[in-house]
């Protein structure tokens, strides 16, 4: 949520900042702004709307400074407007601040600063930082003033601050919101994530909570808030610029849907031994003995990632015989869940920065549980704070709606099931069967992707309807929810996911000829139940789009439309069944003229509670 970027070097800062903002726009896109120190003058330009609006506003203006900060916003305090956009400046227009996070005690700080005659010009929590630094800067130098300010601030922040009175440095600080430093040749780029850095350098430093850095053209120092020096390691990125481009697709989402065969291959490659029916996950080898002793697994995540957890729980209970619970990370952290040293907590997160999921990890560690992360973004906070984990290696996911990260999470959950299962009750033959089927998944996804035109035809038939129900059972119950999330976030239409057995307990009352149902009904152990469910919908004049296994002719006799998926092992059907639902939601959004990659009100990574 919110993207921040900063530049210091020998080039003009303004174009580099704008380019960085474009890369980070998926983190928030209701307003944007930048500040550059141009000579001795601090120049700040902000605009409500997309980064393009900011660019239009800058237009032909010649902004020639070589140091600056910028921000793309997802509003938390104060509606999107020019004045609430970042950067926020102090009263004298010397100090400029961009902030990602929430300053929890901003009201009391604001009151204190108003008493000291500071004039506020926005409704945001973030503006207090500029005035607080200004207040301390009256007596001490810029960096010390920032340190003093941070001692008073409660809450989460990724901060980048510049001052026209000390125009040779950017001060950055992190607590709870991600911040990465890119190290170039004679230049540095600060950003919320590496997508704004990859085009400049592959050398980065990930900051940890409580760290503050002073960055100059010719070097940088990192300390804690007490100004005690901290040593940092440099990481080399393996993401390339090309992987963050659309490469001929109309939208990132479509590109990412079509990347799924490759993404799944990348997430399983080198991580199993077919002949032994075994999985080998290097990232959790160190904690394998503790996993063997575990009595319970607790999976925490949010949104789509939680649905991957629900499928994973089904896999683990059926094949590894371990009691597994799944919870929303934001519920888990506030309820008194019973977990201890015999619990393995698995946190699933594409970004590795979701605030609630991170808080759940910390809570579980506190209670003595072993924490594992299934994370996509290398070096992200959850990846670093969990005791061990498995990267999904799906590559950068830019579209706000998660697709390839989800199917890679499912593939990794299947490997984890084999690993945990073979430690317990799973036979060699079962292990071999799962692995063999998993290896075939990428080519089966390709077969579904080849049907895209048929799915578009179905979307054309239904794109004017306003309400949709998504139904599924057992392994595909979470997939019904996932289909519904995709449709609502992309089209803003009303879509609800249900466990299909629940329909008769109330929801079926809604069904009529204007309420189409998407029924996920592959040929699996619950097929007959789903088949009856479809007939019940049809008996009430409901329209049914069925997701079924190729060769199922019976379903075509009752459903209005059928999208076929190849046959696979029941536990792996979700990886295939979700593909047509992603494509259906994508086409529905395009047909309804919605912004596919950046749906309204959303942001890619939710770094605030
Ligand atoms: C929906 C979607 C979200 C995320 C959720 C968790 O398409 O992308 O529901 O799955 O916000 O995000 P991560 O996985 O980054 O923790």
What's the gist of this structure?
With 609 residues, this protein is of the alpha/beta class.
Instruction: Please report the distance between the alpha carbons of the first and last residues.
Output: 10 Å
CATH topology of the largest domain: Glutamine Phosphoribosylpyrophosphate, subunit 1, domain 1
Q: Which parts are unreliable, with pLDDT below 50 for 5 consecutive residues or more?
A: none
CATH domain class name of the largest domain: Alpha Beta
**Largest beta sheet, briefly?**
8 strands, antiparallel
Number of helices: 19
Oligomer: single chain
Share of helical residues: 25-40%
Strand content: 15-25%
Helix/strand/pairing class, anyone? alpha/beta
The distinct bound ligands, ions and cofactors come out as:
fructose -6-phosphate
Q: Rg to the nearest angstrom? A: 25 Å
Q: Order of strands across the biggest sheet?
A: 3-2-4-1-10-9-11-14
